[in-house]
Amino acid sequence: MNGNNSILKLDSIGKYYLAEAGLKINVLEDISFEIPVSNEGTITSILAPFGSGKSTLLKIISGVIEKDGGQIFYGDSQNKNVPLIPEKPSSFPWMSAKQNIEFGLSLSKKKKYSVDDLISLTGLSGYSDHHPNNKSYGFRFRISLARAMALNPSFILIDDSFKQMNNETKEEIHQLISYLSFSEKINFIIATTNLVEAIQLSDVIFLMSAKPGKIVHRIETGKKHSPELKNIKSEKFATLKSKIEELFHSVYSIKTINYSV
Amino acid sequence: MLIKKTKPVYYLVLTYFLLWIIFSEFILPVNKILPKPSIVLESFPALWNYYNLPSNFLATISTIYISLFLAYLLVKVLSPHLKEKDNSITVFINSLEWFSQYLPGIIIGLLLIFWFPSSNYIEFVFAFATAFISIMIKFQNESDSADEEYIISAKSLGLNENEITKKIIWKNVEPKLMEHIFNLHLYLWSLILIFEFIKGSSGLGAIFRQALEYQDLSAIFSVFLITGITVFLGTLLLKYFRKKFVFWRKI
């Protein structure tokens, strides 16, 4: 098995930790999925309840922590470090927006964008000399995103970073991600607990159960051909939402999902 | 327009000075508690000529500020090694720190004075070692609680452990180290003045000792004022550095 036709392929990934008295607790069990190579940018969501191991999975994919079993294929990319934007905004507060991006570029082995390109693409024009300390979550997220894009990776991981933002900012960031995926053909993998967010943003949704974390369903939203999915009042949106809710209810451990708009 | 308010404490300090001038200059007779401001002023030329104020003053401030600066720099350079709590350097320094929990630092200073009575450098070594151990322990403690999101991001960007310590963890804990240096600054002043007082060869502490032997109240008071003003200016300088270089501190 290899990942030549995929930008990412996970094969039976497992992760456990040892609790007190040496008890082995499985956090992730037999996680397998694939994101195929595409000429278009895709947004893939991993939709799961709190405490299901989404963050652990993203950390394993990004190379931050080691897996305890299985294999990961990164397509033809030699770079196994995939930028991960964690839950809390992670732009470095001791650097300006521009310096954060330059830091990313200094680590990049295959530069595609210039600093100015990244500033412009992420909506930071006019704020390049601003420092992220004490600034909004949205501003800090844009910097983290630009810094991640500086590496020109096959895909970018986002770990439920939107839940700290207010609705207005969240909407702007969703639009930005959709725009970058469409115009720059950037692939995103987003971990989220929010069903509505997953439907509105994603091309593919993986449903994940908890304790242990397992992928239980794969759903194609058909978003590219159904722009009305962005409208939560549309029939398509309601149909897909009901379908996912039913799938969730069929799995006992994922009933704590956030169904709110 | 933004009007910067003067803190009430400064008014109070000013009031103390005015009261001192009024009472000791015009109301109280000559006494051994508060010298007249005019006599204190007159004692400055004597301090300059007989107590060798310039070189003693320079000896003290260079010892304190150079050792503080070098200790900070060395902890920064060695930070990747110092973060690991089980390597031999860290274990050795931590064992020294264990003694300092139960022994006041000046007792080590006393031993150093006894062992190296004529050394000109032992005061600097003592100040540097105190500053280095203190900053190192603070760094070790704070690096354990560095913000995880920065470390995760840095790892995912491909930085190795050494680079993460130098470029991310150090920056992350720098505001707390800076706060620690404010306390260390005052502690070092106290320690070095006592050290110099006991050794009696150079520094402001040596002037205190000499003035005490001569029962020269105005000289003691003058050096007291010089020390206070210097520590005040030193604190202002540290505040400036904090504002200029560690501006991202959490409020």
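qc> Chain A has a mean pLDDT of 86.
qc> done
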